[in-house]
Amino acid sequence: MEQDEYATAVQASIEDVADCTARADAAVRAILDQVMAQRRSTAVALDYLAALSPGTRANCWALAESAGHQGWGRMQALLGAYRWDWKQLRGRLAALAAAWVPDREDDLIGPGIAIDETAHLKHGNATA
User: Fold this and answer.
1) CA torsion angle for 62, 67, 73, 76 (degrees, to 10)?
2) Structural domains in the chain (count)
3) What is the 3-state secondary structure (H, E, C) of the chain?
4) For residue range 32-59, what is the model confidence (pLDDT) as tens digits?
5) Residue 125 domain-assigned (yes or no)
6) Domain that holds residue 68
């Protein structure tokens, strides 16, 4: 058996990645528009998602700063006061993930992506 360490499995360009990212963002925005009461709520929610990263502390000040907001108020309002149904959102996100990571009907294992290693469905309302 010969091993080729230099073979490329997939070739993608920056444009391919940017296009895929734009389509994913549009799909998430469409779902948030259905769940959130106002468009500005959707905009803050998208800012929140974009601000989440390994280098950003998960508090309203740091998230707002990372999102380019002047203060923490909009992030705090999103998590505490904006009206939206998190159960409805959770239900729609599963369909979005299934659409983006298709699975063959006869595949009992799935697409091979582990989202939560505990395999417990989250029901809490105290976490983002």
Assistant:
1) -70
2) 1
3) CCCCCCCCCCCCCHHHHHHHHHHHHHHHHHHHHHHECCHHHHHHHHHHHHHCCCCCCCCHHHHHHHHCCCCCHHHHHHHHCCCECHHHHHHHHHHHHHHHCCCCCCCCCCCCCCCCCCCCCCCCCCCC
4) 888 888 888 889 988 988 888 777 777 8
5) no
6) 14-85
Q: Letter for the amino acid at 37? A: A
Going through 65-128 in order, the beta strands assigned E by DSSP cover none
In a domain, 29, yes or no: yes
DSSP 8-class letter at 98: H
Residue pair 58/42 in contact by the 8 Å Cβ criterion: no
Q: In sequence order, which residues have a C-beta less than 8 Å from that of residue 42 and are 6 or more positions away? A: 29, 32, 33, 36
Return left, alpha or beta for 112; rule: phi > 0 is left, psi -120 to 50 is alpha, else beta: left
Amino acid at position 98, single letter: A
Locate 121 and state its tokens. 């469905």
Residue written as tokens 């309203």?
Answer: 60
Q: Name the band, by pLDDT with cuts 50, 70 and 90, for residue 70.
A: very high
The neighbouring-strand residues paired with 84 are 36
Specify the pTM: 0.61
Q: Would residue 31 count as lying in a domain?
A: yes
